[in-house]
DNA sequence: TAAATACTGAACCATTTGGTTCAGTGTATG
DNA sequence: CATACACTGAACCAAATGGTTCAGTATTTA
């Protein structure tokens, strides 16, 4: 059985599920920024913004470094390729789902669910 | 300023952030299934699986209907197009981020963050 | 009609999340 | 050297998550 344990995808999809964090990515796409300036732009405390940055960093979407007292944030080099790959692969399943209408009937006839469950 | 409020994306990325739910999508890509059979396959209580299905349904990724006492689940017709679009759009920003290295230096020279924050 | 099946809903639980405040620490700057 | 600035960390909070159990309801089936 396939091991449905894909921590990196867990982390990055979770990171992308917050509109503020998607906004941060969009913002960093236009150039680097400090945590303070991001906190200003997104009307949030510095501590709150730092937490968002940490989530994005753990997901590998953002990279930061500190010079003096300023921590600068940019988009990470890992990018969104793994996420794009998962989505593209499974998009095909959605498109092909009408071909599976026969399966619905056959599964319903089996009255115990499907055989891959046994 | 752009309104960073995109509830549909919030819901679907959150739905995709769980490995079990990604597994359910993969499974439904191979044909419809009842909640009970999914609960069996993913070694979970029926109630637990029902919750996952509800999350996927609210995100528009799964559609269900009940015939008799059996609720059948399939992939939704909305698909993953909105998610794919967001990812593809922002993937370019990641790829272009090296072009922004000059910005980093200029922003650091501004010593107050960046001007779009003012 | 009695028993089994498939789901539904409520309640509970521990953990995580998204935010805050407050109290530091280290770095520039006047 | 004193003050301001940028961040860090701890503590707290309400709400959401991902699971469970237990007690129904509705539908088949023997």
TrEMBL record, chains A, B:
InterPro entries: ArsR-like_HTH (IPR011991), HTH_ArsR_DNA-bd_dom (IPR001845), WH-like_DNA-bd_sf (IPR036388), WH_DNA-bd_sf (IPR036390)
Source organism, top-level taxon: Bacteria
MF-aspect GO terms: DNA binding; DNA-binding transcription factor activity
Pfam families listed in its UniProt record: HTH_20 (PF12840)
Protein name: DNA-binding transcriptional ArsR family regulator
Domain HTH arsR-type: 1-95
Keyword vocabulary terms for this entry: DNA-binding
CDD domains assigned: HTH_ARSR
